[in-house]
Amino acid sequence: FICIFFKFLLLSDPELFPLQIVSRCDICVLQDVVDPELKAVKALVTSLNRYDEHHYEYVSSQSLGKTSDDLQQYVFIYRTHLVKQLGQHQYKGKAFVRPPFAVHFSCNKTDIKEFVLVPLHTDPDQAVQEIDWLYDVFEEVSAKWNNTNVMFLGDFHAGCAYVTRDDKKNIRLFTNSNFSWLIGDREDTTVTDQTNCPYDRIVVHGQSFLQAIRPFSGMVFNFGKEFRLKQAKVLKLSDHYPIEVRLKGSAPLLQATPLLVVGAIIRFVFPAL
Ligand SMILES: *[C@@H]1O[C@H](CO)[C@@H](O)[C@H](O)[C@H]1NC(C)=O
Ligand SMILES: *[C@@H]1O[C@H](CO)[C@@H](O)[C@H](O)[C@H]1NC(C)=O
Ligand SMILES: *[C@@H]1O[C@H](CO)[C@@H](O)[C@H](O)[C@H]1NC(C)=O
């Protein structure tokens, strides 16, 4: 599964590239989605179902944010033959600007059969605090579903001026060794040459989840390179690259079995239609 967060500007005219990116994934997480009536999301899923051999469904959070002119949703898009949604939960504790929205999934084809995905798009002004609060989110969702296989992912603003090396001691997801960061501090998840920052991250809890992930599969997907797009064109789609991670499959991969891929982050901003 790949989870993708995308900044996605042109949905009235669904472009091929977003479809190609989303259809690499078994699960995509989109953040920064501004589409309260879900028109753009539905159009995207309809196009996917037409374009791709797999069948996709979506689940969305409510519009979240502090002010009415900046409300965003978290949206998951997933392949129904592979994964099943077991439950969803809107976190309400702590003062997140866009509180995490957790979804509990099951998948029979991966080593790990049940896991929880929790996206977060931090507020840059309180990124350190919000990343630290993910520990409280972990306690709540793992207790709710009796499952400690929890993966956090998204644009945490976890680098450059927002989160410094010194800040890490105040972030329990760093200080508690049960959490593993799969996108390292040296990555650059931003598109422009002007910045070199590992803002987008994937963090998993626990040894069993870590062992169910293909080693070194957490990475930034530079779709500009892959699709040979000019930087200006890439920037029209997003100012961040997606990040992604792959889960190990439980059975030897049959030829017909799609690669089991998890993770990824592109940020789609859907225009309010
Ligand atoms: C996995 O297998 C169980 C038991 O056979 C079944 O109930 C469930 O629907 C399957 N899950 C998926 C995603 O196919
Ligand atoms: C919670 O999960 C553990 C380990 O998977 C299991 O042994 C235990 O019975 C579960 N507890 C409940 C209340 O379901
Ligand atoms: C890490 O996880 C183990 C197993 O769940 C637990 O016993 C231990 O207390 C955890 N360590 C920390 C620092 O939370």
From TrEMBL:
The keyword Hydrolase is annotated on this UniProt entry: yes
InterPro entries: DNase_I (IPR016202), Endo/exonu/phosph_ase_sf (IPR036691), Endo/exonuclease/phosphatase (IPR005135)
Domain Endonuclease/exonuclease/phosphatase: 20-240
SUPFAM superfamilies from the UniProt entry: DNase I-like
One BP annotation, GO: DNA catabolic process
GO molecular function list: deoxyribonuclease I activity; DNA binding
Residue ranges of the TM segments: none
UniProt GO cellular component terms: endoplasmic reticulum; nucleus
Signal peptide: 1-18
SMART domains according to UniProt: DNaseIc
Cystines in this chain: C160-C197
Alphabetically ordered keywords of this record: Disulfide bond, Endonuclease, Endoplasmic reticulum, Glycoprotein, Hydrolase, Nuclease, Signal
Keyword Acyltransferase assigned: no
Compartment(s) where it occurs, according to its Swiss-Prot or TrEMBL record: Endoplasmic reticulum
PANTHER family hit by this protein: DEOXYRIBONUCLEASE, DEOXYRIBONUCLEASE-1-LIKE 1
Similarity section: Belongs to the DNase I family.
Name listed for the protein in its UniProt record: Deoxyribonuclease
Organism: Xiphophorus maculatus
Taxonomic lineage from the root: Eukaryota, Metazoa, Chordata, Craniata, Vertebrata
